[in-house]
Amino acid sequence: MTARADHLIDLVRQWMAFPGRVSGSEAERMCQEALAGKLADLGFEARVEGAVCAAAMPKILMLHAGVLLAALPIGLLRPAWGIGLCVIAGVSFWGELRGAPRILRRVLMKRITGNLVARLRRPDAKARLLLVAHADVAHASRFSESKNKPWSLSRESLRDAAAKRRLHPGTVVLAAAGAEALGLALIDGRMWSSPGAGWGLLVAAAVVHFAVAGLSWEWWTSPPGDGAVDNGSGLAVVLALAEELAEDPLDAVEVWVVATGDREPGAGGMQAFVRQFGRMLDADHTWVINVDDVGVGETAVVVGEGRWEPLPYRPTLPAMAEELAQLDPRFAGTRQIDLAGDTDAGPATEAGWRAVTLTTLQDGQRPGLLHTHRDTLDAIEPAALEHAWALALALCRAVDQRVLIDGGHTPARTLAIPTTRP
Fold this sequence. Notes:
Layout: H1 3-15, H2 26-41, E1 45-53, H3 57-77, H4 79-98, E2 111-120, E3 127-134, H5 142-145, E4 157-159, H6 171-188, H7 195-221, H8 228-247, E5 253-260, H9 268-277, E6 286-291, E7 298-305, E8 311-312, H10 316-327, E9 335-340, H11 345-350, E10 354-361, H12 382-406
Parallel strand pairs: 3-5, 3-6, 6-10, 7-9
Antiparallel strand pairs: 1-2, 2-5, 4-9, 7-8, 7-10
Helix pairs in contact: 1-8, 1-12, 3-4, 3-6, 3-7, 4-6, 6-7, 8-12, 10-12
């Protein structure tokens, strides 16, 4: 093991001192505060800012399942009302998959979490580079522990851009909502009548809704994992990058470090960061390198994401990573992939920033230990950590050179980190 790998492992070990780092928890806040202290020692201006995020995803799923189940008896008494509820819930769930419209979640209370935001001040910088890693961990449900769970029920999967596009597992909920509405219409018989088929559709829809409610409850009540890979590894790489860039600064770029909360599973912390800083960080001068789950396997570059409609990142950073893979033997063979899920690069891309996510694959798939109790320090592969750190550092240097060559339109104006508290 090299000295660099040993240092990265030690950093992951330090985050393990804060178990149970789920979104909004005291452990998540303590982890971010500890990181803020380390960054302050390096010369960063660092603080933990409050972030308002949507309700937890298991609650949102249970709400949709509950509304669709309630539509069954209501629809048998008042078919138009039941069909209307199915339509509302179906449109709302479709919005959950594609980003809008998100209707039903509005009745749930929002959550307060936090983002660590740190800046290595450089008033003459022509651009800003955000090094991002999420600080929270996921609930490690018993369902996630299964190594042989069917793809159709997996919460996250890979999409190969060259292969036929896969539908997100949540599509089954949309199909069940449509089947329920059709079943109620067939039983009502005002336009056409087929009670037998109608009852069959209602039973099938009810089975799906009960399954979604049960899986959501099990997800919500399961204890959190240790989160060594997801995402102690990302935090370790980002802090090690900050140490390197504080000692050997970039020439034209100001470095920020953002440790987001509420990443699992919907990137709520990054969405809050964009709302708070979006007007200050203009698209032409903001670059984002997101480091997520890099502790085991082979480094891969995510170039797009999305539950329903793929969201391609701006091509600049993925193209730079591809060029590094071609020119530097250390990064030869680095794959570029799409993710059928969310990362912190998604909200950054929607804000117009240049963004990319670095992650890892095992045998061409996402590591099976994610969101499980197998995600411990013993599972970390030092070589994977070191390789991800080296690629991220090379990207940082490449961004700096790109900004030097392009020159930038004007020097970045002096920015002050807001002090707004929840």
